[in-house]
Amino acid sequence: MVNVASSNHRKSTREIILETIKASRQAKVESLAEVANVSPVTVRHHLNSLQAEGLIESNSVRRKVGRPYYVYSLSEDGQELFPKRYVRLTSRLLEELKAVMPAEAIDQVFKGVVQNVVDDHKKNFEGLPIEQRLNFLIRLLEDEGFLARWEKTEDGYSLTEYNCPYYSIGQEHTEICTFDTELIIKVVQAPIKQHSCMLQGADCCQFTFADEAADS
Fold this sequence. Notes:
216 residues; alpha+beta; Arc Repressor Mutant, subunit A; Muramoyl-pentapeptide Carboxypeptidase, domain 2; four-stranded antiparallel β-sheet
């Protein structure tokens, strides 16, 4: 068991449990209770909540004698709770690019990244009816870290993103918004209108486009 107790006095039991599992890769209830300085009953309560949220996973370990016991590890979503240094690095790289390149060139860089993604997947959506294209777009956005949904409206279609995986970077570099908007345009193959943006304080990013796209 990795010792992460040195700064535990500033953290909640939930945080201590998550950090201990992260550092140890997997942990038992008794070990977590010792590190967090709480009872095993309290640890189990937190583990049940974390498992319900999809942040941890459990595996049964059989012993030669006695009942099996459970060990807990972080799920993929749980791993995402911990800050990644690439956010800071990406921000610094963008700052450097913006210092030496004109805005138009930066815009082309982002569009080039989107075009590479589109080229990788074009054969999977090109020629599909619009609603099948939208279903593919949702999966593509999910692969990039977005939670998105589309719906049919009286005037056409609406697409809503409920999170932004680039939110932290976008606080300083709004150019990052080019990525999803360009990706939507390339797959939908029609002009879109953006009605809200999380970087501007909205609780979601919402886009609409007309029925005409269905004939494109």
